Automatic annotation (TrEMBL):
Keywords: Signal. Pfam families: FGE-sulfatase (PF03781). Residues 67-374 form the Sulfatase-modifying factor enzyme-like domain. It comes from the Bacteria. Residues 1-17 form the signal peptide. One of its GO terms (molecular function) is formylglycine-generating oxidase activity. The keyword Signal applies. InterPro entries: CTDL_fold, Sulfatase_Mod_Factor_Kinase, SUMF_dom, SUMF_sf. This is Sulfatase. Gene3D superfamilies: paralog of FGE (formylglycine-generating enzyme) (3.90.1580.10). It comes from Niastella populi.
Length: 375
């Protein structure tokens, strides 16, 4: 088990996991410095993680037009973004948005659902592909040394809790680059999804999620659709269930309890991923829209996309034309939403309906999945 060192993945994780209430900058820079010590610089343009065609060009739609497992989300108008002062900078200002009605998967895509897709198409996920150094180095600064063979392997990032309290600005303390970790082996070789058919699929990249969606005759939600669906008809409430703090009452979502990242009391019943439908649905019938696993959206991420929205109501916004994250300006990123089983009230709190996060589209992690929508 190697400490993760793959640069683009590392950058993505640094940004993704650095979801404290202020900024991910420190975390990302710390992680980049860490990468410099080990393999190569992260300050270049982001290389395609595996430098192979991970697009969904070869995926043929299954032709299945069923709406089974989906719930109808009505169209409507809302104010997108944080209504209170609990948001991070990129959640402001609130701005008026209209979305047309659509259908949304009631649950995150499960291992059983993803297995059907792989069986039908032979699709190989990003995490299962070995990096091609000859292609990869074309996108890195001249003279970048070749990483050790032990790092140029099919691998993914696994949550590995430290033995004791650690600085929260160093995500390498709890993420490890594990050879052989992928959707079928969530904790690496020796782990499996046997008996976990109804758990959400994880270790899927944005490319993987897009490929699945095409095959299923669906698509990924826009960020606006996702937030509208998470708000479930409530106005300016912080959570998909309303206003009650997440720690009060009965467990509302699969998050982290205890002390992050070293002590998880799992009082909600789950230390890692939970089977879908383990917690109550929101008013639209969506399960686990808060917590459990992050969910990919179709949009590129821009930290300033809300400030650029202007005052005119946006109709079915599909996000910016390109990505820009000032914390990692050379790394294109897609939006993820909803938080995960690693979100803790003191550290991340991304189970809030307006919380935004971002990661590079060629990165999968143990706490990242998706659900689809359909017109
Ligand atoms: Ca939990």
């Amino acid at each position: 088990m190697n400490k993760f060192s793959w640069p683009c993945v590392l950058v993505a994780v640094a940004s993704f996991a650095a979801c404290n209430q202020t900024s991910g900058t420190t975390t990302a820079k710390t992680a980049v410095a860490h990468a410099d010590d080990t393999v190569m610089s992260c300050t270049s343009n982001l290389p395609s993680r595996f430098a192979v065609n991970t697009s969904s060009d070869s995926i043929v739609a299954s032709g299945n037009n069923s709406y089974e497992g989906m719930v109808k989300i009505p169209g409507g108008d809302f104010l997108m973004g944080a209504a209170d002062k609990e948001g991070r900078t990129d959640e402001y200002p609130q701005h008026a948005v209209h979305v047309d009605g659509f259908y949304m998967d009631a649950t995150e895509v499960t291992n059983a659902m993803f297995a059907q897709f792989v069986k039908a198409t032979g699709y190989v996920t990003t995490a299962e592909r070995k990096p091609d150094w000859e292609e990869l180095k074309k996108q890195l600064p001249a003279g970048t040394p070749r990483p050790a063979d032990s790092l140029l392997v099919a691998a993914s990032l696994v949550f590995t809790p430290p033995a004791g309290a650690v600085q929260l600005n160093d995500v390498s303390q709890w993420w490890q680059w594990v050879k052989g970790a992928d959707w079928k082996h969530p904790q690496g070789p020796g782990s499996s999804i046997k008996g976990k058919e109804h758990f959400p699929v994880v270790h899927v990249s944005w490319d993987d999620a897009m490929a699945y969606a095409i095959w299923a005759g669906k698509r990924l939600p826009t960020e606006a659709e996702w937030e509208w669906a998470a708000r479930a008809g409530l106005t300016n409430k912080p959570f998909t269930w309303g206003t009650e703090p997440v720690e009060k009452g009965k467990p509302k979502a699969n998050i982290w309890q205890g002390h992050f990242p070293d002590r998880n009391t799992a009082t909600d019943g789950y230390a890692r991923v939970a089977p879908v439908k383990s917690f109550a649905a929101n008013a639209y019938g969506l399960y686990d829209i808060a917590g459990n696993v992050w969910e990919w959206c179709s949009d590129w991420y821009r930290s300033d996309s809300y400030t650029q929205s202007g005052t005119k109501k946006l109709i079915n916004p599909a996000g910016p034309a390109a990505s820009y994250d000032p914390e990692e300006p050379t790394v294109p990123k897609r939006v993820v939403r909803g938080g995960s089983f690693l979100c803790h009230a003191s550290y991340c709190a991304s189970y809030r309906v307006s919380a935004r996060m971002k990661t590079s589209p060629d990165t999968g992690l143990e706490h990242t999945g998706f659900r689809c929508v359909k017109n």
